[in-house]
Amino acid sequence: MKERIPYVESGGYVAYNNEKGGVIEGLKDDGVVDLDSRVEFEPDWLSANAVITSWLTDAVMYELWVASDESPVHKIYYSDLARPIGKIMFLKQSRAVKQLLGVNGDNADHREKEIYRRATRAYKALSSRLGDETFFFDSRPTSVDANFLAHALFTLQALPETSTLRSKLLEHTNVVSYAEKLRKAFVDPDPSSTSVPQPLSESSTSDPKSSHSSWRSRPKSKPKKEKTEEEKTFRRRAKYFLGAQAVAILVFLTLMAGADDSEVDLDEDDDFGHNY
């Protein structure tokens, strides 16, 4: 991911994800679009955003840096580095995450149960909130959609099949189908690409700047070393974590501009295929 700077482009305007608190806040501060203008004071919206950005974020960090071995993290984040350097960076980040999550030798089992219990509650609440609707709130995308879609796609595509968090998410049919629908429409529209895993069980108009919007990532100028197919797969999966954050914005701009007059593009590096 260090080779990509994700951004949203609307005409001559560009919002980078590493500036102004991210793409969503950047577009709001610059007066381009405010996804949450109609819902930001609703208690349900505040609660939904809170559990996604706290409980579910904690669960992903725990699985990546504490519960799993080094291999997936290395392939996603450190594959361009020498193995010893990647190992050092992993250990450093793992210690930082343990400290952030309050995990130590005395309470490791208790904290793990608590983290997964919170994630389970969050998935149940979000699944109930979504129901059969297209979006979580107000029949249009908000930052809740952007944040949850980023989480869902990363969890389903990047985490291993043995992941506890992944299996808990797969228990909720409607949110998995929701993520798949938006993935096909805006993130990876190639019909030949592999869909997200099937759920394990059943449960519960114009843009002020331009009518053309796109989500892209800027390639690094220096040449990349050759990667194995496995590394390419992991790095492409990691792309969802950043790329999906812009989907709600793109959906909003597309709906406002009109289906006939707007276009959404996702430019992908040639290193990434459409199979994962």
Overview of the structural elements:
- Helix content is 52%, strand content 8%.
- The chain is an alpha+beta fold and 276 residues long.
- The protein has one domain (5-266).
- Strands 2-1-3-4 form a 4-stranded mixed sheet.
- Strand 1 and strand 2 (13-16) form a beta hairpin.
- Helix 6 packs antiparallel against helix 9 (229-243).
- The protein is globular.
- The two termini are 17 Å apart.
- Residues 201-222 and 257-276 have low confidence and may be disordered.
- Residues 215-225 have a biased composition (Basic residues).
- Pfam families: GST_C_6.
- This is Metaxin glutathione S-transferase domain-containing protein.
- Keywords: Membrane, Transmembrane, Transmembrane helix.
Q: What would you call the structural class?
A: alpha+beta
Radius of gyration: 19 Å
Low-confidence stretches: 201-222, 257-276
Reported for the largest beta sheet, the result is: 4 strands, mixed
| Average pLDDT for all residues | 76
Number of DSSP strand runs:
4
> What percent of residues are in strands?
5-15%
What is the subunit arrangement here? single chain
H/E series: EEHHHHHHHHEHHE
The helicity comes to 40-55%
Q: Give the strand order of the largest sheet, numbering strands 1, 2, ... along the chain.
A: 2-1-3-4
Distance between the termini: 17 Å
Shape: globular
Domain unit count? 1
Number of helices: 10
Organism: Kalanchoe fedtschenkoi (Lavender scallops)
Biased composition (Basic residues): 215-225
Transmembrane segments: 240-259
Biased composition (Low complexity): 201-214
